[in-house]
């Protein structure tokens, strides 16, 4: 059921789909009323998810949200608080932790809270300490990963990172991921310095800067297409970087690519699907993140709207 306050937005999506169909032909994936309605509602859900960040930025946030010794800790809200206090490097770092660990459906933010807060030892694995000695971070994790993974207490990674490992030793575990992230930023260069450098290479164009950073993230271990997309789009939504995705980055994706193929039909190449999604947004004006997320969820239940979380 579409709420009255969303009616104008849904009508705009409807008008955009009509305009796209007139100009390029109706996408075969929404030839039935049921599929078109389901897609519209998934796009609406995605708009709400994307706009949520702006909503929480405009609300007061308790300092408890930035305290990993408190069960109310939330890495995204902590990043916003750090940004508001001018601690930009810590804000970037918390966004990375937010993406790497994600929010477990069972354990919430426990993994990131206990790692960032060093299990209540009184210090933090903040950006200053981690970037100064990533090997020490890995050694600490080696000695404490069993405690963090303890039985009987819900934990785990979020849905977008469900195949990740807390392991300190493996080539693809959290220890290696964090070490490679520090190398990518390359202190004493700052996060902002890294972004400014990328922007200067492409004439300060937000889409090309996004693409430059996206490609450079090959250097981060086990940080694939979805993690990169989530990390960089979050930097953009928070205003930490003047970047926006110029395409849905379907290469290497699963759900979003299936959604685009279902919408446009046939056996199109990923490059063609990418281009068609960009053309669709020229009529919808909802942005690449909304389309990437909406198509991913729509293909799971194309004939009937089902809300998905995570």
Give a description of the structure.
- There is one protein chain.
- This protein is mainly alpha-helical and 310 residues long.
- The protein folds into two domains: 4-56 and 247-298; 62-238, no CATH class.
- It is 58% helix and 0% strand.
- It contains 14 helices and no strands.
- It has helices spanning 7-24, 33-57, 75-84, 88-101, 110-116, 127-132, 134-148, 174-185, 191-201, 206-216, 225-238, 255-264, 270-284, 288-298.
- Helix 1 packs across helix 13 (270-284), helix 7 (134-148) runs antiparallel to helix 8 and helix 12 packs across helix 14 (288-298).
- The longest helix has 25 residues, at 33-57.
- The chain is globular, with a radius of gyration of 20 Å.
What keyword list fits this structure?
single chain; 310 residues; mainly alpha; 2 domains
Brief digest:
By secondary structure, this protein is an all-alpha fold. The protein has helices at 7-24, 33-57, 75-84, 88-101, 110-116, 127-132, 134-148, 174-185, 191-201, 206-216, 225-238, 255-264, 270-284, 288-298.
* Helix/strand class: mainly alpha
What is the straight-line distance between the termini? 21 Å
Question: Could you give the order of the helices and strands?
Answer: HHHHHHHHHHHHHH
Uncertain residue segments: none
Number of strands: 0
The chain-level mean pLDDT equals 94
- Number of separate domains: 2
Cα Rg: 20 Å
From the spread of the alpha carbons, the general shape counts as globular
Note the total helix count: 14
Percent in helix: 55-70%
